[in-house]
Amino acid sequence: MRPVGRWSRDTMPIVAPRFARWTLLPVCAKRVRSGDVLNARCCTRGPAEAVRVRRYLRKRTVALRGEAEVKQVGHPALRARAVAVPPGEIPSGPLESLVLRMVRSMRREDLVGLAAPQVGLRKQVLVMELTPDGVGEFSPHLREEWGVSPFPLKVFVNPTLQVLDPEVLVLPEGCASIRGFSACVPRHRSVCISGVDVNGQPVSWVARNWAARVVQHEMDHLSGILYIDRMDTKTFTNLDWKETDTGC
Ligand SMILES: [Zn+2]
């Protein structure tokens, strides 16, 4: 889940800055792959080639960082029901690697939660975290009104959800898989999430207020549900609407 109000990195290219200049131009993928980046511009092949090169560089950069690319709405994994991780794969190297990549991606994109379907994997794996610095980005008024408080890194494999307080709060939220938008979404005030960690040890967490919202948002991802399925449609907002409004 993406906290509304922290969108500055959305518009940044995922490619490394030293490549950013080149990705704006049609360049030769063959030369880029061979490391001959400086001469890549010499043999231009049109916009289609530029798109392919951009995609390649983005993929390489994300892989080199040990991160995972956050998929955007339209990707089939975001609408599929995630399957449980088999007990025989907990713990395992691939599971640890997946969690590590998810945590890195969550932190890089300033998110408070990420589900495996968001990185294209139909697995029941969640990571969530809100640091004190992250809380500081909310105004004192919102912290108080929304009940925002920090929580350490939480990792859940094969989680289940129990509603503890059926009272519903309707507050704005965003999603890294629906970049640039937000909407008000009804969520229960208090829930308990239970599952196992990467080592297979049982873990549970009673989350209240804003943390409970994060848990419910991420749990929805495991069922192929996005916040736009639950939102108050009249509150759906393009967060850049003021920048794109010329006043004409
Ligand atoms: Zn989301």
Automatic annotation (TrEMBL):
> Might you name a Gene Ontology BP term for this protein?
translation
| Domain of life the protein comes from | Eukaryota
- Has keyword Metal-binding? yes
Key words of the record:
Hydrolase, Metal-binding, Protein biosynthesis
Kindly give the Gene3D superfamilies that the UniProt entry links to this protein: Peptide deformylase (3.90.45.10)
What reaction is this protein's catalytic activity?
N-terminal N-formyl-L-methionyl-[peptide] + H2O = N-terminal L-methionyl-[peptide] + formate
Q: Name one GO cellular component term.
A: mitochondrion
Q: What is this protein called?
A: Peptide deformylase
